[in-house]
Amino acid sequence: MPAPRPRVAIGVSLKMYLGPRRTREWFDEVLSLAADHPALASGTAELFVLPTFTELAALVAAAGDTGIAVGAQDLSWEDQGAYTGEVSGVALREIGCRYVEVGHAERRRLFTEDDRIVAAKLAAALRNQLEPVLCVGEPVRGTVEHAVEVCRAQLASALVNSASLPGPITLAYEPVWAIGAAEPAPHEHVRAVCAALREDVAGRPGSRVIYGGSAGPGLYSALGGDADGLFLGRFAHDPAALRRVLDEVAEVEGVPA
């Protein structure tokens, strides 16, 4: 019987901030801190990292059997063919990726990816046994009810091609208005939205709801168990800051030091 899945997921996207050398230096530091961190060693938490395409194979090899998962920030909706510049889910799976990000607000805004494209990419991830990190979130600040309505519509649209495709989803709630902001969305807002979204992914065993959007120390404990983890950005590009988040997870989950 496979080991139970870690309850907490901590993800880090490097976006396009770090070059190849700095990415590998950063990952070496992360491997060092993760080697004996109680939150990870106990199986309570899982750490996944999304570097740029050029560093995927190197980081997969470096991660080895440490338990740290590596994934991509994007993929093609097609598995092969004349698609210049694209990277397929087939290729990502072959080199050892376990996760792939789909539907981020920057992909929608900068590269005009609409609901149809997001749905096609989500299906491509699932059929290639990659776990999608599906980003959802309302564009402007409003009520919890409005946020839940928008996120549920985005989730339903993203899954339109995937009803027959098994596999868990990590749903990343990232209100667009909180991405890159000085502070995350209010704790009670995040808790209520994440709790509602959990109901929507319950039909896919192993699925989780995590929060992203200016996430950092102090947030995991404030979410009171209504989120299954955090999706970190620039804050976690400092390994010491990432350690503080993992320390907090260990404390909240009652993991002995």
CATH topology: TIM Barrel
How many angstroms does the end-to-end distance come to? 28 Å
Radius of gyration: 17 Å
Q: Averaging pLDDT over every residue, what do you get? A: 95
Structurally, the number of domains stands at 1
Structural class: alpha/beta
Count of helical regions? 10
Give the helix proportion (percent range).
25-40%
GO biological process, one term: glyceraldehyde-3-phosphate biosynthetic process
EC number: 5.3.1.1
Subunit structure: Homodimer.
Protein name: Triosephosphate isomerase
Short structural description:
By secondary structure, this protein is an alpha/beta fold. The chain has ten helices and eight strands. Strand 3, helix 4 and strand 4 form a beta-alpha-beta unit.
Description:
It catalyses: D-glyceraldehyde 3-phosphate = dihydroxyacetone phosphate. Homodimer. The chain is of the alpha/beta class and 257 residues long. The chain has one domain (8-252): TIM Barrel, CATH 3.20.20. Helices cover 40% and strands 15% of the residues. The chain is built from ten helices and eight strands. Strands 1-2-3-4-5-6-7-8 form an eight-stranded parallel β-barrel, surrounded by five helices. Strand 6, helix 8 and strand 7 form a beta-alpha-beta unit. The protein is globular and about 50 Å long. The two termini are 28 Å apart.
